[in-house]
Structure formats: C-alpha cells, structure tokens
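Budget justification aside, the reviewers requested a transparent look at the raw inputs and outputs of the sequence design task funded under Objective 1. We therefore reproduce one unedited record. The lines immediately below are the structure tokens for a 198-residue chain.
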C-alpha cells in the first residue's frame, strides 16, 4: 500500500461500489474486530526479541513473521486483517445457520459448544464462518474434522488451513484443500488427523 491517507470518502466509495453503502457502521465494527484479532496480538513495531515464545507462536500461526522487517510485517498484517475482515463480514449468525439447516438455534449453539461446527466467539454471540457451507448445507463430514481442530486455533489459521491445497489430499496428482477434499466425498479421517496436528 502506498503511504497515501485513506479518507472516509474512499471507504464510502468502496462500500457503495460493492452495494454495501448502508453497511458503513457495521464495516467499521468488523474492521475494528479484525484489527484487534490480528494486529492487537502485539504492535507491529515491537521487536521479536521482546516477545514471549507463545506470542511468537501466535503470530506465526496466523502468517505473521516477527523476524521480518517492520515494513514486511505491516504488509503481512494488512493482508491478514483484510482476510479476517472478510471472514467476519461473510460469517453467519446462529439464527441464519439454524434457518439454513432447518434446525433450532439451540441445536446450532450445541454444535458450536461441542466443537462440531467451527465458530468465532464475538462477545456473547457466535459467528459461523461461511467456508463451512456449500449452498445452504454443511460441507460433508465437517463435524468429524472440526472436532479434531484445536479449540484454541486462531480463525485465520483455521481459514488458511481449510482452504489451502495439501499434497496429502490429492486426486489424480492435483492437491486439494481440506474443504474441497470433503466436498468431493473424500475420507474425512486424513483431514481430521491433519487438523489435530495444527
């Protein structure tokens, strides 16, 4: 990104261009939450030597390299924040998931608490990332895989893992992401095994 200042008019124009003009305040909330979840781990100017090992691990988990120079770190943080904002903006509410799946909101909350549906706790409410759905249905065998995902895994790390092709999940030599593997009807066990190691 250039050093030019982004104005409110720039943001309003971008939101209007994508039909989201009336979502300005919601967009600001999403951006704040995304920044808190990504950059809020530690200010980017903080030298890696000042970070505890668990803090370094958290940053690496979401694709940020504290050993990079500040400029590279900031660019990576910008990309991660944009991805996090997209995850939050496209996430479903419990009510929406219940409607789409034809179950009660209580059943959806039970799936989230049982960790058979991946959710992001946002205050007292749950957000359910849309990558777990194909049309209005859950990705096949999703519950088996999500149950193996460590509960502490950062949403960005989950998103990146779930959507990135893996050589271990290949059809005719073409690597598939865990999501695409499950959509083709692939065995969930190797995906769950990989998830447990995250």
């Amino acid at each position: 990104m250039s050093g030019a200042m982004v104005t409110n008019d720039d943001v309003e124009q971008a939101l209007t261009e994508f039909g989201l003009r009336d979502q300005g305040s919601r967009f600001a909330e999403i951006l704040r939450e995304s920044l808190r979840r990504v950059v809020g781990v530690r200010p980017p100017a903080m030298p890696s030597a000042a970070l505890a090992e668990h803090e370094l691990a958290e940053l690496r988990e979401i694709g940020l390299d504290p050993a990079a120079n500040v400029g590279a770190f900031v660019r990576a943080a910008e990309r991660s924040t944009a991805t996090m904002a997209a995850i939050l903006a496209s996430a479903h509410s419990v009510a929406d998931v219940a409607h789409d799946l034809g179950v009660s909101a209580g059943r959806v909350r039970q799936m989230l608490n049982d960790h058979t549906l991946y959710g992001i706790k946002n205050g007292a409410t749950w957000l359910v990332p849309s990558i777990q759905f194909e049309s209005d249905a859950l990705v096949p065998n999703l519950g088996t895989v999500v149950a193996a995902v460590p509960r502490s895994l950062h949403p960005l790390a989950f998103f990146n893992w779930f959507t990135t092709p893996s050589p271990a999940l290949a059809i005719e030599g073409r690597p598939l992401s865990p999501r695409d593997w499950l959509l083709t009807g692939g065995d969930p066990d190797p995906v769950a095994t990989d998830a447990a190691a995250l």
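The first strand starts at residue 120 and ends at 122. The mean pLDDT is 82. Computational costs for records of this kind are itemized in the attached budget.
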